[in-house]
Amino acid sequence: MSRRCELTGKGVQVGHNVSHANNKSKRRFLPNLQEVTLLSDALGRRVHLRISRNAQRTVDKVGGLDNFIVKAKDTQLSDRAQRLKRDIVRRIEAKASA
User: Fold this and answer.
1) In this structure, are strands 45-52 and 33-40 parallel, antiparallel, or unpaired?
2) What is the pLDDT of residues 11-35, one digit of tens each?
3) CB 69 within 8 A of CB 81
4) Spatial distance between the Cα atoms of 84 and 96, rounded to a whole number of angstroms
5) Are 47 and 84 in contact (CB under 8 A)?
6) All domains of the chain, ordered by start, with CATH?
7) What residues of the chain score a pLDDT lower than 50?
């Protein structure tokens, strides 16, 4: 399982630990990933995702998983999230046409 957020694409970054003597050693900055269960109103079911805490706050701010994922770009979404987006968009369009 990669250390990458399924909704925002946020991943591991690389940098240096810098000592007082200005010695540099490599280090990794890991994203704060959480296993969360989000409710999709359009699908009417719960969805398990591994997302960053920052993405979780954004989902809450935007008004839920459906609103966030419909507005998100496909390039930053994982394959699972892209399939989820297609399902949500189809369900929303079906409700709108009915």
Assistant:
1) antiparallel
2) 999 999 999 999 999 999 999 999 9
3) yes
4) 18
5) yes
6) 13-97 (2.30.170.40)
7) none
